Amino acid sequence: MRYANSMDTRMEKKIIVLIEDEEVMVNLLANKLEKAGYIVKTALDGMDGLGLVRSEKPDLVLLDMMLPRLNGFGILEKLSEEKILPGLPIIIISNSGQPIEIDRALKLGVRDYLIKVNFDPNELLMKVARLFGIEENEKKAPVSNTATHANILIIEDDIFLVELLERKFGLEHFKTYRAVDVEQARAIVNSESIDAILLDIVLPGADGFTFLREVKASEKLKNIPVVIISNLSEMEEMKKGIDAGASDYIVKAHATPGDIIAKVKILLKNLRTP
Questions:
Q1: SS3 category, 177
Q2: Smallest Cα–Cα separation from 227: which of 184, 204, 257?
Q3: Per-residue pLDDT of the chain (274 residues; tens, 9 = 90+)
Q4: Would you call 140 exposed, middle or buried from its count of C-beta atoms within 10 A (0-12, 13-18, 19+)?
Q5: How many CB atoms lie within 10 A of CB 237?
Q6: What is the CATH number of domain 15-140?
Q7: Which distant-in-sequence residues (6+ apart) come within 8 Å of 266 by Cβ?
Q8: 19 vs 92: CA distance, rounded Å
Q9: Is residue 122 within a helix (H) or strand (E), and if so which, with residue range?
Q10: Contact predicate 114/127, CB 8 Å
């Protein structure tokens, strides 16, 4: 069985099962993935897709949530019952992007998600490549559950987003701290060793710009990379954040938690590279 804890060192191509009922989307994604060097097996409904996963034992599943005969959650629940999840990496393709739907899928063991309304095939290729990179690194150099790569402070009053980020960071062995306002954030940076900060702008009380200026004015804290994550997408706001010392500015509507974490990892790597 190839799903979990495999010591398989084959150099053969990765097998991806794509379960999607829109044929145009199937053809587009299959073509992109095959050109990138993957073997793609497709199914147009949930029952056929479930059978394909069982028979092919793929390295990854791309799963639409709205399917005929058996929907995406039905497939996830079956795979969970059969102990195939969470060992099998799955990326869901959501029509709605509703937080409750994504949260339910993540709790069932899904690794990442895409939202159709914001869909970009190149984003999918990046997510697949990044996921396989993580999988291979974990096989080559297992990390204990207690090991951490870095300490991340998330300053955000959207609790759903915070919990989503905490879960994703935890899977990659980061330790997270949360603050819902600037007062809590001040207490944490003064008591803990923080390696990177994710900062919302619109917060209860003082705004994120206030905290950013404080961090960059502090000899102790000024070298900590700060990534702004905000719903504010105006160029003026972005320039204001970068001018105040932010390392990057991410508009929430244009990024997934996986994208945010990838950005933090790059910043930390650059910081540690002489």
A1: strand
A2: 257
A3: 454 444 343 347 899 999 999 998 899 999 999 999 999 999 999 999 999 999 999 999 999 999 999 999 999 999 999 998 878 999 998 876 677 777 788 788 888 888 776 667 777 888 888 778 755 544 444 444 434 579 999 999 888 788 888 888 888 889 999 999 999 999 999 999 999 999 999 999 999 999 999 999 999 999 999 999 988 888 888 999 999 999 999 988 777 787 888 888 888 888 776 5
A4: exposed
A5: 17
A6: 3.40.50.2300
A7: none
A8: 10
A9: helix 121-140
A10: yes
For residue 241, the one-letter residue type is: G
Cis ω for the linkage preceding 257 (within 30 of 0): no
Cβ atoms 249, 228 nearer than 8 A:
yes
State if pTM tops 0.85.
no
Looking at this protein, which amino acid is placed at residue 269?
K
What is the residue type of 90?
I
Q: Which of 76, 248, 250 is nearest to 161 (CA)?
A: 250
What is d(CA 269, CA 151) in angstroms, rounded to the nearest whole number?
Answer: 14
CATH number assigned to the domain covering 151-272: 3.40.50.2300
Tell me if domain 15-140 and domain 151-272 are identical in fold: yes
Distance CA 74, CA 169 (A): 27
Domain ranges in the chain are 15-140, 151-272
